[in-house]
């Protein structure tokens, strides 16, 4: 996938931070599940960047001893034979984050102020046996200290993050690629299918993935069981047939000034619960996305339609998302004005035999802000922003957002799809407004730090349910080796 915004000279740490760039209101390089195994066709040998997906890095360039210039380089490239593309590479990620939220869930449902320290440590081994075979394994240990509440996305004792075999080869004038095992996946801006890098525990899938690429075309099929996370003991995560997600996707580059993608998918979840209905959930999904850039203008447009059933109710739900921006090509600060528009359906009539509540599937947790005050359901959202780059290493975002409900019959939702108690059927459409300030600083090609502050001012719909204004503060330091 290609970048969707004008960028300044590349930085390795910018690649490490690409997941969080969405939180800064930027349209970033697509971190998708269908990307190539490596950038091994790069013409000039150079050290690879620390990638958002660590399995995409190609360390075969260190077969040249002259390029082994940094400490522990001998562990980044362990030769396994006479060919330079047969090697084992070791690596690690460490993320330390402090979060403070003076009104988690707007203070409803007996929630109070919450300050905590989140730590995520990952260690991986990447085996390459020639250009066509890869075996990637990654362990993760995610901990939290001081939290008032700890959920599945907050903590996960030492467990298997990823473990897959990847194969590729020529076919039909193009290239086929197969991945089987536990792995991460994310589509496009990761509005609805995401790696979930915002929370402490990322989302993985036990999946089979097959795609074929030729010229501007890419055709993908996948079947998966999303991993369910437990932290009672080590290596206790699991997946089973009670939650499944699979589909078929087609991508076409250079459709006018942008790229076009569409996919159909099926989502199955047993014993699902929504306000007013419970039962087995079966959703058929159609998603369309068009993104591109022309001159200083960039755009990313996506729409999803969901049909099917939850229990005895027929599902009729939808969502749209748009990010638009214009970047001035100036050597000083390179300002970008952005506008984000989002909407998602809610359930208008509890007793009509239909469920209109949109299911955001596997959202990324930072698409709106890191504060988690906004879920992608029963939503209208408008967010103008400005992003500037005072130095080559510093990005600064300032934004304001306004939010409403599609229907007052349904609840106000928190991230990812948690209803605020007492809001369904009560209060007006307006949910509230917020201010966001975010700073991203690349200390080096391995070290990145960021700061985010969000102030959310609630409207009567939340205040009448016992909620109140909220402030969120986050400070993070991330390291990749």
Unreliably modeled segments: 1-43
What is the residue-averaged pLDDT? 90
- Portion in helices: under 10%
Instruction: Report the total helices.
Output: 4
Overall outline = globular
Rg of Cα set: 22 Å
Portion in beta strands:
over 45%
Instruction: State the order of secondary-structure elements, H for helix, E for strand.
Output: HHHEEEEEEEEEEEEEEEEEEEEEHE
Give the distance, in angstroms, between the N- and C-terminal Cα atoms: 24 Å
Largest sheet: 18 strands, antiparallel, barrel
Helix-strand category: mainly beta
* Total number of beta strands: 22
Question: Can you describe this structure in just a few lines?
Answer:
This protein has 481 residues and is mainly beta.
Features:
mainly beta, two-stranded antiparallel sheet, 22 strands, disordered N terminus, 481 residues, single chain, 18-stranded antiparallel barrel
């Amino acid at each position: 996938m290609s970048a969707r915004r004008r960028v300044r000279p590349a930085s390795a740490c910018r690649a490490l931070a690409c997941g969080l760039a969405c939180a800064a209101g930027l349209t970033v390089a697509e971190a998708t599940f269908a990307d190539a195994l490596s950038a091994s066709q790069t013409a000039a040998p150079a050290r690879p960047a620390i990638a958002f997906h660590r399995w995409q890095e190609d360390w075969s360039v260190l077969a040249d001893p002259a390029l082994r210039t940094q400490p522990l380089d001998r562990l980044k490239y362990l030769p396994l034979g006479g060919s330079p593309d047969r090697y084992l590479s070791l690596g690690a990620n460490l993320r330390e984050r402090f979060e403070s939220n003076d009104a988690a869930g707007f203070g409803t449902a007996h929630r109070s102020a919450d300050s905590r320290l989140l730590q995520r440590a990952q260690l991986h081994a990447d085996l390459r046996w020639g250009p066509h075979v890869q075996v990637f394994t990654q362990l993760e240990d995610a901990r939290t200290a001081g939290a008032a509440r700890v959920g599945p996305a907050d903590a996960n004792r030492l467990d298997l993050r990823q473990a897959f075999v990847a194969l590729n080869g020529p076919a039909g004038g193009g290239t086929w690629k197969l991945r089987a095992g536990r792995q991460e996946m994310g589509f496009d801006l990761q509005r609805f299918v995401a790696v979930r890098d915002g929370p402490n525990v990322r989302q993985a899938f036990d999946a089979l993935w097959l795609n074929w690429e030729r010229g501007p075309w890419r055709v993908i099929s996948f079947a998966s069981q999303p991993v369910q996370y437990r932290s009672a003991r080590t290596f206790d995560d699991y997946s089973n047939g009670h939650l499944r997600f699979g589909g078929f996707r087609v991508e076409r580059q250079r459709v006018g000034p942008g790229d076009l993608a569409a996919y159909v998918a099926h989502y199955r979840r047993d014993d699902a619960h929504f306000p007013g209905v419970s039962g087995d959930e079966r959703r058929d999904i159609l998603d369309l996305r068009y993104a591109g850039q022309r001159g200083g203008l960039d755009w990313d447009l996506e729409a999803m339609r969901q049909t099917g059933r939850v229990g005895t109710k027929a599902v009729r739900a939808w969502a749209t998302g748009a990010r638009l921006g214009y970047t001035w090509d100036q050597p000083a600060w390179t300002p970008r004005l952005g506008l984000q528009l989002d909407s998602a359906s809610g359930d208008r009539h509890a007793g009509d035999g239909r469920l209109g509540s949109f299911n955001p599937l596997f959202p990324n947790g930072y698409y709106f802000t890191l504060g988690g005050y906004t879920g992608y359901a029963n939503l209208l959202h408008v967010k103008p922003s400005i992003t500037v780059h005072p130095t080559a290493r510093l990005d600064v975002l300032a934004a304001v957002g306004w939010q409403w409900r599609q229907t007052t019959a349904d609840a106000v939702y928190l991230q990812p799809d948690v209803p605020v108690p007492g809001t369904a059927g009560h209060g007006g459409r307006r949910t509230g407004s917020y201010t966001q300030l975010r700073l991203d600083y690349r200390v080096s090609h391995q070290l990145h730090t960021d700061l985010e502050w969000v102030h959310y001012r609630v409207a009567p719909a939340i205040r009448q349910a016992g909620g109140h204004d909220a402030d969120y503060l986050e400070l993070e330091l991330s390291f990749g080796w």
